[in-house]
Amino acid sequence: MDNYEKQVYIGRELFLQHEQDKLIEKYGLEHDEEYLYLKYIGTEYRISRRDGAIAYSEGEEWMDCKEYTIVMTIYDFLCCSGQEILPPLTGQWQPVGRFVTAGSSPSTDPFVEKYARAFSGKVEEVKQACICLGGKQMERLAGADLTFEMPVFQDFSVLFQFWDGDEEFQPKILLLWDKVSLSYLHFETTYYLQGDLLKAILQKTSLFV
Q1: Which region among 13-27, 99-113, 155-169 has the lowest average model confidence (pLDDT)?
Q2: Where in this chain does the record put each DUF3786 domain (predicted)?
Q3: Residues near 32 by beta carbon (within 8 Å), at least 6 away in sequence
Q4: Which value, in Å, is the radius of gyration of the alpha carbons in the chain?
Q5: Position 102 confidence tier, pLDDT thresholds 50, 70, 90
Q6: 46 with 39: CB under 8 angstroms?
Q7: Phi, psi of 43, rounded to the nearest 5 degrees
Q8: Residue whose C-alpha is closest to residue 29's, from 67, 78, 68, 86
Q9: How far apart are CA 26 and CA 147, in angstroms?
Q10: Rounded to an integer, what distance in angstroms lies between the CA atom of residue 113 and that of residue 120?
């Protein structure tokens, strides 16, 4: 078992330590005797109430989820907060670096730039991908070609902005977070979620090219 697998099993154990009825009430989860259900970035997932294993819906089939970032983000979303009632999102957006002391946040520029280049020249395709994932197009901010509020979990969204490139400027992506986001997720998990979201947008974009 590699370190990633070990962490997944630690996540399962953490989930199983929580009272599932409280999680159901707190997050408004659909459920039955065997599973809890939730949607993450446009895909339906279920969590085994017996052993904590996560699966995703593919048509009428349920497939074991082996994506480390997805699994750990779902566990963290359900288990991070010790508050019985979560604070409502404020609609006040800020960069992820605002959550930590200046200089202590690792740069995500190279990672995000990879997706910005992939989206270059495809504004309409990226727009359709965001809509397909449940995104709500917002008024343009700071001259961005696209501004979307993207629901990643029920009652939890991030703001996605994209500026297309031209002869003078490189394409650019900016993700903004509600100022109470760390009541829902640990800071480190925002990087997992960012990657999962951009990957999902890219996959959907390819459908419209």
Answers
A1: 99-113
A2: 23-197
A3: none
A4: 18
A5: very low
A6: no
A7: -120, 140
A8: 78
A9: 29
A10: 10
Encode pLDDT of 152-177 as tens digits.
998 899 999 999 988 888 999 999 99
Collect all residues with Cβ–Cβ distance below 8 Å to 81 and sequence separation of at least 6.
183, 184
Instruction: Name the one residue in this structure whose structure tokens are 């947008």.
Output: 201
Q: Write down how long the chain is.
A: 209
List b or e across 72-92, with b for residues whose CB sees 16 or more CB atoms inside 10 angstroms.
bbbbbbbbebeeeeeeebeee
Reported as a single tens digit per residue, the pLDDT across 109-157 is 778 999 999 999 999 999 999 999 999 999 888 889 999 999 999 889 9
Give residue for tokens 């509600």: 178
Distance CA 31, CA 46 (A): 9
Residue type, 69: T
Reduced 3-state DSSP string for the chain: CCHHHHHHHHHHHHHHCCCHHHHHHHHCCEECCCEEEEEECCEEEEEECCCCCEEEEECCEEEECCCHHHHHHHHHHHHCCCCCCCCCCCCCEECHHHHCCCCCCCCCHHHHHHHHHHHCCCHHHHHHHHHHCCCEECCCCCCCCEEEEEEEECCEEEEEEEECCCCCCCCEEEEEEECCHHHCCCHHHHHHHHHHHHHHHHHHHHHHC
Look at residue 1 in the predicted model and tell me its pLDDT: 61
Name which of 122, 123, 151 is nearest 136 in CA terms: 151
